[in-house]
User: Fold these one by one.
Assistant:
Number 1:
Amino acid sequence: MCILYMAEPSSAAEWRQAFLERAPELQFREWPEVGDAREVQYLIAWKPMPQLMEQFPNLKVLYSAGAGVDQFDLSDLPDHVSLVRLVDGAMAEIMAEYVIFAVLALHRDILDYQISQRDRVWAPLPIIPAYERRVGVMGLGNLGQLALERLQPLGFQISAWNRSPKEVPGSRCFVGVDQLHAFLGQCDILINLLPLTPETTGILNASTFAALPEGAGIVNVGRGAHVVEKDLLTALDTGRVGGAVLDVLDQEPPQPEHPFWRHPRVLLTPHIASNVQVKGAVDVVVRNLDRACKGLPLMNTVDRSKGY
Ligand code: NDP
Ligand code: OXD
């Protein structure tokens, strides 16, 4: 059995070591040292590869080296090849940590204080207690659920919006397009943790911003293409949106002249909210091998009809 690693080259040694410890019987190869391509049954990739099946005719499972799969053209992948996301609890914990940081930064007016500091102005703002702040999460998946769970003990009024109904202990889950505006209307801070699909592309747009309370904060940790950037810029410039913490952009890195670099109401980070934790990811691969041997369905497979 052979697995080919085609993701971040600087992490390859860590993956090799983790496979060696967990599944020494598995042959680990590292792109571009493919060897006999017919032996490659499992592939770990972050970027799409043209003519995948021509190159690896015996491919069984494509593992996305991350939680998102929007980078792949799902129609290119034959039905017998499974697409699996390498997500685990540690990745969700790291994301929750970032979400807490971003929500607290908006909640405690850190963007204003950065401006004040730059201008040498000592200007305290009124403090709003957490129990008066309404925080909503879009997307109650692996990452959204834990983020919400970790936010709850901080005292915020929390809620969620999801495609299908889900339990949110002590709060409400708004469901589907029909309830989107009702959800938005009660979010002082909105967190996007949706996957990027045709339905969610551009979901953070002028009409979304108009439905939020005036001056609401936005945290985007999903994908850059969830945001219509020119609409966000207008919303920030007019004060419709009070501030944005953006970890993802449509183009990464953005051009030097991109307005978000220097926008006083934007806190920008370079797609670091979370990432794959190698041990957990290797565990998914190995447990899936075991499940395949037992004829059980694989874990973390992507539903191609939904696109996530
Ligand atoms: P999951 O697939 O576990 O969850 C996705 C959630 O979104 C599900 O609850 C799903 O609803 C909901 N959803 C999907 N489409 C819609 C829709 N049209 N309307 C309403 N709800 C919808 O994904 P993860 O939580 O693991 O990851 C989410 C995303 O986070 C990834 O796709 C990736 O883009 C991003 N990410 C960003 C990182 C970063 O560093 N910035 C790191 C890792 C991930 P349902 O329950 O009904 O299926
Ligand atoms: C992911 C990401 O999807 O890092 O894993 O964004």
Number 2:
Amino acid sequence: MNYEEHMKRCIELARLGEGHVSPNPQVGCVVLDRYNNVISEGYHHEYGENHAERDALLKLGVEDAIGGTLVVNLEPCSHYGKTPPCADLIIERGLKRVVLGMRDVNPIVAGNGIRKLEAAGIEVIENILENECRQLNEVFIKNMTEHKTFVALKTATTLDGKIATSTGSSKWITSSAAREEVQIIRKRYDAILTSSSTVIADNPSMLHKNKIIIDRELKTDFKNSKIYQNGNIYIFYDEKLSKPQVNGINFIPTPTILEKIDLEYVLKKSYELGIMSVLIEAGGRLNGSILEYTDKIYQFFAPKIVGDNSALSCFDYRKVENISEAKEYKIEEVKAFPPDILIMLNKK
Ligand code: AOF
Ligand code: ZN
């Protein structure tokens, strides 16, 4: 039996929960009867609600899944959390086989779900489309294993890597299809993160439920900048300044290193605030300085060339002499948003 097609469907179902399940993983599930016909599907819809396996099994009569197979992208849980253990329900419903994409990295579960199922005589098949399943839950994996916020970065440039001309003219480099995709990418992350320079230069709205702004010298206009008009706002500023009082804005005093905000502190604090992932949308200097903490890059390219050495670059923060000092990435995926393209890269 080839379970890959069913696992692909699990991943598709899991993605329906994107933007709603953080800090939990995205999980989808397909149930097959004893003749391998699909009889139910489910996914984790919302943080705190039923897990994917429970969502799929509760749609069936109590005897429907006897002798069947349950396919799921993550090891079924074995703990009492917001809901009882999925492994128990799978056993109760009489399934004979569980096919999974990856073991859970949550230490409370990690292997215990599999042990529980096997102890009940259920066959467990592991690692179906494991890489795809890991990719799907890269944020959850980083959170669980490193206790750190996942950092993604989006930039949109010309072929020569420019984000604006030397006068700051940048609207628009990419076309509408690419810009619509950016809205979708934003929803994937718990917060967006930008700098005072971007707020002052572009006055963007950056619609999102959580916005982090690095404003060391408290230079932005807290009353009138569009970015402050909605969402939860967190402003990181130099701890040596006195804390401003503006309704609805959280000002976070931050240590500096050589007159620059300590980015590691910003990310650590964000994690403590429950922000499990951020999307950086900023200019060349912040993009460059935060690269060392960046797990993933979304780079849109428009088929345009500025050709001006003093135009603003997307990563512009240091002097490099030898090409061997260049940071290297792995291309995960390339997608067309005509006339532009998107390259998704992960840390090597
Ligand atoms: C989910 N959805 O479909 C599966 C999860 O706090 P709880 O009770 O919701 O448990 C969350 C943990 O359950 C999560 O960290 C992961 O280890 C496991 N599996 N979680 O949110 C699911 N299958
Ligand atoms: Zn569960």
